[in-house]
Request: fold
Amino acid sequence: MSHSTFKLILIATVAAASAGIFEEYLTRGYLFNLAQRILDYYHITHSPLLIASLFNSLIFGSLHLMNYIFGGQALMATLQQVFYATCVGLLFSAFRIATNTIYIGSILHFLFDWQIGITKGVSHLMPWSNVVLVYLPIAIISILFIMTVDRHVKNQKMTLIQQ
Reply:
């Protein structure tokens, strides 16, 4: 393996690990807990896990707008990235709820991002039909899982806020 290949792999690994850890800590850690606390403070008991998940997933997806604003990525490719990041964010929220940690989401996020292309910060445009067919079912299944847990938590009068 040449020095330049090793350097690219190292940069991609560091970039993916940084994104996986930072973005998951921010969205599924801090913002998820913040949303739960706000919902609890205002006594909103209908689907709090779903609301917290949608909140942090929409922010997570929106964070990817920076690739257009600051990274020079094409607008349509960025909008696709926002869409699929939001869908995958719901999946990571489901893992966060199922495990009550951000570790699984961080590892999956790292693996999702771990590619040489991350060093360029550019996503390529795909047909919208492919993006929707792959990522929308992920979002729907994640939402159904979160709604199921929400109902179970409400029936058991439990709380999932981490202290």
Summary: The mean pLDDT is 90. Residues 3-41 form the longest helix (39 residues). The CA atoms of residues 16 and 65 lie 17 Å apart.
